[in-house]
Amino acid sequence: MEKAEAQGTPDVVEDVFDGRATGVEVEQDDRTAPEPDSAIVKPWDPAQIRVTTSTFSLRNILDMIDEGSLELAPDFQRGQVWKVEQKSRLVESLLLQIPLPAFYFAEDSDGAFRVVDGLQRLSTLHAFVRGGDQGFRLKGLDYLEENSSSFSDLPVQWQRRVNNTQLVVNVIDPTTPSDVMYDIFKRINTGGTPLNAQEIRHCMSKDRSRNILKHMTAMPEFNTATNYLGGHIRMNDREMALRFAAFWLMGMDAYQRNPVMDKFLEHATAQLDDPKEVPDSKVDELYEAFRTAMANAHLLFGEHTFRKWPAGGPPGRNPINRALFESWSVALARYDAEDLKRRQAAIVGAARTRMAEDIAYLDAITSSTSDRRRVAYRFSSAEQDAKAGL
């Protein structure tokens, strides 16, 4: 163990969104730089990109949403962060006949569509035109005098103008490989606040994986361990559950063969979406393992669960660290609670000493956290410390 020159942790930076602390530590990870000993990844074949451009009326698109053939990513909370004034100016743009930027849809093999880019805009327009009592009234318009108006309050000719607005849509063909589609999503994402990796995965995944992750993050054991992180505004809770599922299902060897965290989590999402890969019986086992891991982690670490808490460190509670979450949750999923309770002091002491003195470990949970060596080191460290007192 390489000993630190002074006790304590590196600066802990909490993620902030829309002026609010999120309760989760910023993950300082260089996702683009290849490891020194790794080969440069060969770009995918441009011939794999199949995109067609079509024009739809807004009425047509809203009908597709209502009938379920165009999905607006259920449980996706980001659309709620637009203020009424922002939503109103989008509607005003339609009324002024200002063309909107192109939308991107991904077509499924069954002919259904998912929104790749433009989710917030379409959610806003659907809420205004078809939302009824759940819609909103215009506010803060720059050029028109229709403030306080709902869609039904607008003159009929303006309602018709909105419904007949022509929207340019680029449709990604279902034969496009999923990893290429994911990369396209990241490149064209044009929202005011770019989507993070888990928000993109959520938008592009199917109901099955969404429901699995939602169930995991709604567990009382998860919310007790994470101080009620379930329903996180940036879906950090879903990402943490997905990380556990990925390592629990596929193991460290699978990550070492392709040490790119985004790709690893994409693969796990695809597995969860496929009942042939992960049958319902395996999902039930996943639930029980996750429940056990969360209960055991909180039993050991209490309010400091999944947070940096070095021996001799300053008092107070740090935000949740995702690297600690994935490594300790997997390490504790197979232990009996009574065994851990008996050895609690030894385990906690070992973990806190490591966070105070082991520079390599601090690096593994702080920066370049997707590096294969750092992932392996934090997992092996958690496994070793979980055996303290045996």
UniProtKB/TrEMBL annotation:
This is DUF262 domain-containing protein. Pfam families: GmrSD_N. Residues 1-37 are annotated as: Disordered. It comes from the Bacteria. Residues 60-202 form the GmrSD restriction endonucleases N-terminal domain. The lineage of its organism: Bacteria, Bacillati, Actinomycetota, Actinomycetes, Kitasatosporales.
